[in-house]
Amino acid sequence: MARLFCYLTAMALTILALPVRAEDGYDLWLRYAPAGQARGADISAHARAISARGDSATMASAKQELQRAVTSMTGHAPALTTEPAAGSLWLATPGSTPAIPVPLKGLGAEGYAIRSIDRAGQPVTLIAANSDIGILHGVFHWLRLAQTGASLDRLDIRSAPRIGLRLLNHWDNLDGTVERGYAGQSIWDWWRLPDYKGPRYTDYARANASIGINGTVLNNVNAKAESLSAPYIAKAAALADIFRPYGIKVYLSVKWTAPMELDGLKTADPLDPKVAAWWKAKADEIYRAIPDFGGFLVKANSEGQPGPQDYQRTHADGANMLAAAVKPHGGIVMWRAFVYAHDNPDDRAKQAYDDFKPLDGKFADNVMVQVKNGAIDFQPREPFHPLFGAMPKTPLMMEFQITKEYLGQSTHLTYLGPLFEETLDADTYAKGTGSTVAKIIDGSLDGHRLTGIAGVANIGIDRDWSGSIFNQADWYAFGRLAWNPDLSAEAIAREWTAMTFSPDPRVIDPVVAMMMGSREAAVDYMTPLGLAHLMATGHHYGPAPWVSELARPEWNPVYYHKADADGIGFDRTKSGSNAISKYAPAIARRLADPATTPESELLWFHHLPWDYRLKSGETLWDGLVHRYDRGVAYVADMQRTWESLRPLVDPERFAQTKAFLAIQHREAQWWRDASIAYFQSINHLPLPAGAQAPAHDLNWYKARSFPYAPGHN
Ligand code: GCV
Predict the structure, then answer these.
(1) CA 337 – ligand 1 centroid, Å
(2) If you ran DSSP here, which 8-state letter would residue 83 be given?
(3) Is-cis flag, bond preceding 194, omega within 30?
(4) What is the mean pLDDT of residues 701-713?
(5) Which of 207, 257, 281, 661 is spaced 20 to 30 A from 522 at the CA atom?
(6) Predicted confidence (pLDDT) per residue in 198-220, tens digit
(7) Domains in the chain, start-ordered, CATH in brackets?
(8) Nearest CA to ligand 1 atom 8
């Protein structure tokens, strides 16, 4: 019997130590893969017991997560105790434990401390926080250490979020579709809520809590009025109940004309007292159902959405009226600055600035203005939005797009960490050198206490949540940077890879190398040297730089590249739209001259002759072609690297990524060939020596049509 037991134990340990098992991606970065014998023993030694006194739903989730994780990684379930003993993970808040041996000051309501301590001669790992939510965040930090192979000894960690509101924005529609969603239908089963609450909602909350996300806007900014009707408030409340123990609040996008559509008001004028009263009553109704409701997100007077300007009122008039409705409940309003108008002939890159800059200081103190990272629309590369640094009296909230509308949608491996990092690190010079975008949104530059960052979610009901394994990294990176915008995209990629695939350096090093150059590769094969918005109409899938006949000028790619026989690029200097004047003088001066403009943004700011000399000495045209080729070659390199990882990655995720890289390679080549064929039809220049002619003539590329491409309603 004893022998049989030893044999079975040895078998189990062997199975636990195997690096490879079939996986479908559902577990995200919370896989808690068997850690192998030595590491498993180490983890066990630090988690013999979970000691905690609190019994809130949050504390229960923290304990459950630890039990599930440690058991899965080590094969041993930790005991649950109230008093810490040797090898305990001790979870302590002032509410549950009187004398906590680490200072909690400065950790706020969500931060935590993790410290290896000696308690009555016994080694204990203390996770302490001011609140149970802080404990949950600390638990996930410890689990990150355990999963990534980091030392679990001599820990002395303190961490608190730099940004207050760290939100996902779902562009999910009530009919289950997702605008710009490439991972299947919406995870919100609106139809069967509030009665049926599937297990995915809890897993969604766990995943978000693990990276510090603390809010979610449930519905599309292109909102339907019905999302504020009583049945839909009840559905949102059911989700809020599930998310609450994980520290996640729900928010709703609102349609400006909801009072007219839902209750027959004659107007939606924000200065009409009946309209204000309607919103106040609606806010009261929502807070009765969801006492910790976060607030409203608003897209107004943009892309056909109604708004206060329809009544000759300003964005501030609209935002402040809504803000007054939620203020008594502690709610906020996030008012989007993504506006451009069909009757405004001025450069689209200037319009939001022109609308919002004069409103600085006019917003109520519970309003945030939510600004996209760039002035056009989530392009593969955009200079930072000039509103950052231009509205010191208004808390600005960052809006990134995690879903990859313009960066290869579900299949391309284009890790967005470097894109997020590039924007956060950009220096606005608003108050001299070092006035980074990160310091504007974390409130430190202008002394704001209300701070926020939002990411448009890439989540759907696909088994792997995000449409591909590597797209999960973008969700992960967003959360980690929202917590601490100073983290490096590379460090984040390393921890994600360790948790998602394996902490083995033979996996981490090549995978992270692939990821880190992948966004730049997409810039190269789609829109190099500062080009932008050359995607096909509507669904934005694939290249269509030739499109010129759409009703609104700024919907046409030709508006953005302005290529003609003499040159290419959008002149945003004084001789053109002068959009550069929206930046601080130190930046505007640099951007005034192509020679001092970063080459990565060259054609965003300048219209230049095809024979303009790049820093490399090659002509602009040759440089453009070389970049297209470089982008395609990078994808081929990723394919080779991935193939070399076959023995180290489970078959299911290996096969999916391999297939997607093949799609990416084909589409990168398509982007390159179609772009070259089109620009060559304009400049009639020969290709540089060694460059291949496009596989087809221009008409072939123009004839491609994709009426059923996903993500576009
Ligand atoms: C939700 C772009 C997208 C739209 C999106 C809009 C926005 O234009 O293509 O799908 O609408 O941005 O951010 O409001």
Answers:
(1) 12
(2) S
(3) yes
(4) 94
(5) 207
(6) 999 999 999 999 999 999 999 99
(7) 23-159 (3.30.379.10), 165-500 (3.20.20.80), 524-570+607-702 (3.90.1330.10)
(8) 377
